Amino acid sequence: MVAKLRMEKKGRGGKTVTVVDGLPHNTAFLKELSQDLKRSCGTGGAIVDGGVELQGDVRERVRTLLARKGWVVKG
User: Fold this and answer.
1) What is the pTM of this model?
2) Computed from CA positions of residues 68, 63, 30, 56, in that sequence, does the dihedral angle turn out positive or negative?
């Protein structure tokens, strides 16, 4: 299980978001993971196109949390 992590700014009025891609397209799983990530990072976010978007540059926190859950994180 490989999750791809990236940061985006384009089309968001200069705001930074962290995007987690490569996740299973299971709505219940994504909702639970999104809630978990938002809670641990202390930020807002949303489920978008089979991935999770989190406000701000929180790549390091997301990387450690996903690694603890057994995911291989790239990016």
Assistant:
1) 0.90
2) positive
Q: What is the pLDDT of residue 49?
A: 86
HEC letters along 22-54: CCCCCHHHHHHHHHHHHHHHCCCEEEECCEEEE
Angle at which helices 27-41 and 59-68 pack, to 10 degrees? 120
Task: Give the count of beta carbons closer than 10 Å to the beta carbon of residue 66.
Answer: 20
Given CATH 3.30.780.10, say whether it is the number of domain 2-74.
yes
CA proximity to 18, closest of 64, 72, 73, 60: 60
- Summarize the confidence of residues 55-63 as an average pLDDT: 95
Res. 75: pLDDT tops 90: no
Query: 36, 65 in Cβ contact below 8 A?
Result: yes
